[in-house]
Amino acid sequence: MKVIKKNQIIIYTIALMLVVAGYLNFKTNGDLSSAVKTSSSEEELIASNVGDAELVSSKAYTNNETQNVESSENIVENTVETNSKVESENERYFSESKLERDSMYSQMIESYEKILNSGNSLETQKQSAQDEIAKINETKNSIMICENLIKTKGFKNVVIFVNNNSISVIVEDEQLNSDKVAQIQNIICREMSAKTENIHISSK
Questions:
Q1: Residue 98, domain member (yes or no)
Q2: Over the range 3-34, which residues count as b (16 or more CB within 10 Å of their CB) and which as e?
Q3: Which of 135, 168, 193, 200 might form a disulfide with 161, Cβ 3.0–4.6 angstroms?
Q4: pLDDT tens, position by position, 101-132
């Protein structure tokens, strides 16, 4: 009886060891498979995320680049538009100023011509009117010569007004320095027999 019990204990022990070994083997294989599966899933997820990240990054870069180009184009367009607007305003100022000045001279000449053509005018009045007309034409001719000469010095636009001995010169120039002023003064002094202190120069 003792021998049987001992054998039974040995058999039970071996069976128990086999069961434990089988359980451990099953658990180990199952975890490994799960680990492999999990690892594979994580790799797929990482690869997917990397792909998405690259796609988003590329799209964002393209959008940023497009926005930068559009922004640069808008700046250039605005700058060109602003410059064109300023140039247009300057052109209008100089052209209108010359028209008003020439219109004033035309009206003055017309008034003196009426005196010349009037039968009621005295000879002294007619002579004075004739002198004034000649003076106006001389002034107009001198102004035209001076404006053309000043333009040859690099000024895009210029207009000159004469009021008795005072001469005002307005030029289109953003950097009117002393050298440019001296050039204008020399032209006015020479062509209009004016004194330097009577010449007033400004920029537009």
A1: yes
A2: eeeeeeeeeeeeeeeeeeeeeeeeeeeeeeee
A3: 168
A4: 999 999 999 999 999 999 899 999 999 999 99
